[in-house]
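so im writing up the methods section and need the Major facilitator superfamily (MFS) profile domain-containing protein record in one place, dumping it here so i stop losing it
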Amino acid sequence: MAAAEQRVEVDSEDIESTDFGSTCSDRRVYLKETLHFLRLTWPLLLGNTLEWYEFGVYSYVEHEIAENFFEGSSLGAWLGYAVTFIARPLGGIILGIIADHYGRKLSVNLSLGGMIVATVAQGCLPGKYFGGKFQGLGFGLLMIFRALQGLSAGGEIGAVTAYLMEVSPVQTLGMAVCMISIGSQTAWAFASALLAVLNQALGSEAMLVWGWRIPFLFSALPGALAMWGRNRIQETDVFLSEVRNDEGHKQQHVCKSIMELLIHYPVVLLIGILGVCCAATMWFAPPFWSINAVLGHLAASDALWVGLCCQLVGLAVTPVAGWFTDLYGVAMTTCVGAMYTTLVGFPAYLMLVVDSSRATAYLGVGLFFGIAQGFNGATIYLFCAELFPARLRCQGIALSYNIGMSFLGGFAAAISQAFYQLDDLFPGIYWTCTGIVTVVTIFVALSLYDRDWVKLTHRRSEPYFGKSIMPTIPTMPPPRLKMRGRS
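--- predicted struct ---
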C-alpha cells in the first residue's frame, strides 16, 4: 500500500478521483455533466469525425479506387490505404510535440487543416476513367495526400484525446472520450449510407468514373464549420498549469521528451501498442474488408447497407461501453471487448464463409462484428492516454496508440486479404488472435502493476480494472467545465 500511495503522491497534480458509485448512480448529474461537456467540445468532435469519415469513404470505394489507380488490384488499393497509417506515427510525434509544448489548440487546428486538404484533394485527382492521360500523376498525388491524411490524423487523435480527457469531469471520462468513437461510428454510418444512395442513383458505371469523388468533396462543408468552432475553443487548464510550473518547458524539453518516453516508459509504450491490437483490427477488417472480399458477390448497395448496419450497431454499443468504463474502468472495458472478440471472431467469420447470403451478412458483420467494433473501440484512446502524464501525453499516444493503429489496424485489411488468398479461413483465425493479444496484454500489465514496475493511470486512478487493484484517493467534488472568455 505504501508503494501505491507513493505513486499517487508523485502525480497528485494530474490524478483526480471521486465517488464513482454514487456519482454514476445519480443519472441526472452524470447526464448533465456529459451534455455540458458536449456543448463545449463539439468543434473537436466534429473535426475528428472527418478523420474517420475519410477512412470509411476510401474503404467503401475501394473497388473504384483500385480500378482508377491500381489497375484493378484490390491488394494494391488496400496497401494504398495503409500508406495513411504508415505516416500516422510520424504525424503523431510532430503534432504531439506541438501539443505537449505549444498547446492542444494549435495542434488540433493544424491537424484539421491537413485532413481537410487531403480529403477534398483526393476527390479531384485524375484517374483511369477521368483524365486518363494523367493517371500516373493522379496515382502519385493520391499517395501524397494519403500520407498527408496520416500525418494529420496521427496528431489529431493524440491532441483531441488529451483535450477531452483534461477538460472532462473526472467521473465522466469514459463517456467523454467515447465521443470520439461515437463520431467515428457516425461518420462511417453516414459514409456507407451516402454511398449506398449514390450507387443506387448513379449506377456502377457513373460511380466508377466520377461518383466515387462526391463523398470526398462533401467533407469541405463540415470541415469549414469545425475549423470555425476550433478557433473559438480555449486551451486546457492542465496544459496551462504545466507551462506555469515550468517556464522553460517549450525551449528546453522538446527533444528530451521523446528520449524520456523511450528510456523511462518503454514498457507502458508496449502495453499501449499491444492493447490497441484488437480494437484496431475490429475497426478496419470486418466492416470494410469483409464487405469487399467475402461479401463481394452482393450488389454494391446491399453490401453498403450491411456496412451501415454494422456502424449503427457499433454506434449504439459505444455509449454503453463509455458508461461501463465509468463504472468499472477502462482496462475492464478493453478486456471485455477483447474477450468477446476472442470468442466470437472466428465463428462469426466462419458463418460468412459458409453462407455469405444477405441475411447472414447482416447477422455476422452487422450484429456480431458491430458489437465488437463498438465495444472494443469505445474508450481505447483513454486506455493509452492514461499511461502517460500530461506533459508527455500526446507524444505517448503518438508512440503507442498510433503505432498500434498503424501497423496492426492500418494493415489489417491487407493482412486479411493476403491470408484470404492463402486460405479463406485464415482471416477469422487472425481476428480471434488479436483478441487474445489484447487480453494477455492487459493481464500482464496488471501483474506488472502489482509488482510496482509500471504506473497505469495518471488522471483517474479508479475505477481501472474494477476497484480492487488501484489505490484509493480521498473523494473530491466533481470539477465543472467552464468556458473562458476569448482572449
